[in-house]
Amino acid sequence: MIGDLLFRTWRGPSRLLPLDALRGENAVGGRMPEITCPAISPALARRLADACPTAAMRCLGGTTTPDLGRPPVGRAVAELRSPATDARWRSGRPQVAANGTDESFFELDYALCVGCGRCAAAAPEAVTPARSLPICGVQRARLTRRWNLATGAECAPPAVPELPRLDRWLGRAVNIRQLDAGSCNGCEAEISALTNPYYDLERLGAHFVASPKHADLLLVTGPVTRNMEEAVRQTYAAVPAPKLVVAVGACGCSGGVFAASPEVTGPLDRIIPVDAYIPGCPPTPAMLVTGLAEILRRRRRAGRGDADS
Amino acid sequence: MRSRDAILAALAPALRQAWLREPEPPRLVSIFGCTGEHGPSVHYLLDRGPAGYEEIVVEAAAELGSLTPLAPAAAWHEREVHDRFGTVFAGHPDPRALIGAGDDASAAGRFEFTPVAGEGITEVAVGPVHAGIIEPGHFRFSTMGDRVVFLELRHFYTHKGTEDLLAGMDAALATPLVESVSGDNCLAHAVAYCEAVEQIAGLEPPPRAQALRLAGLELERLVAHIGDFGALCGDVGFAPMPALAGRIKEDLLRASARFCGTRYWRGIAVPGGVTVDPAAALRQELVRAVAAAEREFASLAELALRTPSVEARFEGAGVLSLRAVRDWAAVGPVARASGAGLDLRSLRPTGAYRGRDVVPPVLAAGDVMARARIRVLEASASAQLILDALADWPDGPVRRDLPAALEGCGRGFVESPRGELLYWLLLRAGHIQRCHIRSPSFQNWPALPSAVIGGVIADFPMINKSFNLSYSGCDR
Q1: Pick from A144, A178, B47, B242: most CB atoms within 10 A?
Q2: Distance CA A51, CA A58 (A)
Q3: Which CATH superfamily does the domain covering B178-440 fall into?
């Protein structure tokens, strides 16, 4: 029996995707938005912000500087009945202008985006589902793109510090421990897919391990629920240094659609230090591979001290 | 121990009558609390077979009689209502907190496991962080040598207060949140929610939208069953099958991405219809992908199940009796593998399932082999349903506008890959006042220990996988 199965496997064509193909069109099927118009007008910005149920797309007043360290609450989510919860977030929430007059920036925050497709439906001439999303495995501030509404042009991405240095002797191999901090299991489904014959993550030297004590990298999904907070802290403590933490999915990056719940104490970077973020709801396996490759590349660069591109 | 009469006497009159009316007691679907404008109430949703669903509303009092001594399936429901609404269920045999607060020792709802003592008894604690790419939950085994003599579950680590988050939201904007209740069944959750909204609006989505929803729901089932079967073989060390099933599953997910732009059909179902209308060429492509996947999976699964090392582990392991299915009111493939032919697609079809004549496979053995076989049989049937739906594609629009400011109460029932899924919805002025989600996993988790106790602890991962329940869907 097993011989028949193996014979079939050998006879069938290989499905392994070349790394370049993964990096090139990594976001197909994830419905992250891509802005296709050269400039964003105030009217378009308002239309997009109105269509977005999670405030991943938002207009900002000229006088407020958003605090990117703390995620804003989605508009739908902010209509919570609990004033205490809302107040908890409001202090860190960018002020959204009520009319078009004092808005001077438009922001697209991939950390909050769940790929619902409403923006692309509202303004098909300006937004399409992205086929490629290079900002995977980056730091939190890099997930937010910003346009100046006076000129319509996109602002330069913020400067971010390098990732911490890891010892060189780790080479290219990395042991990954996946930790679910209260996800919906959507991210788990896509992370599991990394081991299938299309992606075969092990060819990159990455390997999923059973214990945090064996891990170099914690791959964390979910918004961090109250009931999981202590387990997240203990798991992080169990990973030997040097260690990397990667937040996965809209929930991992920002708390996502669950950010405003009193049962959620995250997002993850409130609980433990996070080195890199992979957005998406869920991220496609190719986005996960791109993100992990980016993290390993940066780590190698930091480790060797040279400046490969 | 109180007498049956005393237990019945403590119940609300309508509930008591429901239990006395027929020789067979009704199947418990859900119990949940609600704070409407008529004051707080506790709702009992029962399935009375051919007579359909019956909803009994009891005014919430500080104390109500517990139904659990008569219907074990009520145990978790009543504990949840107590945790969330404070109602005490007098006579509940296990009144511990259910949702509680994880390992927070200071919390009032600190969880004490049932002590199991005796010479040679060893306790094995597993979780919440498991040794794989899995959701968190805790299993406490008491074993005598390799034998499991007792198993207690401690879940709700992924409790996110989703029902409370839904309250207050605009009904038209809630689908991204309901799609994140159980990510691998996201379309089933979205469709159940949409059907509840549409029932309140008193309209049906256009035929083309219904056909697309059916194709998506069956594709979700096909993908889930193929993945589960592969993982189940992986758990007994039959390595080629998870690789091959993982590849077929990925073929289908990529076909989905080409067909409707999303791998897991997120953002497709919305109240009033669907958001995409794939062209004829894309439908043809999906036909080819589904037909190829079904053909390949069916022959591979047959090979795997005839492999002695797989057969020897699956046969007779983790038996869930029909009695246990009835006691716990279990649903879905788990119930159908133990002789209970409960499938909403044939019993109470909605949408495009009407007139489809779905005949669910039912097996009697109740062991891991039966649950594996049920998935293989259902995968073939699902593929055929998709092909039939795509061959008979209705014309017309895919979305209907909903009236503004909807008011009222509605229910959406969907046979998800894990079984009967319920959304109970109360809308006021177009906003959600209360949404109760009863996932099939909430119903089936308490039944799992019945299939594990008496077996060897090394069989647990395989038995658990053969149930394949969602933690997040249960915990919400």
Answers
A1: A178
A2: 10
A3: Cytochrome-c3 Hydrogenase, chain B (1.10.645.10)
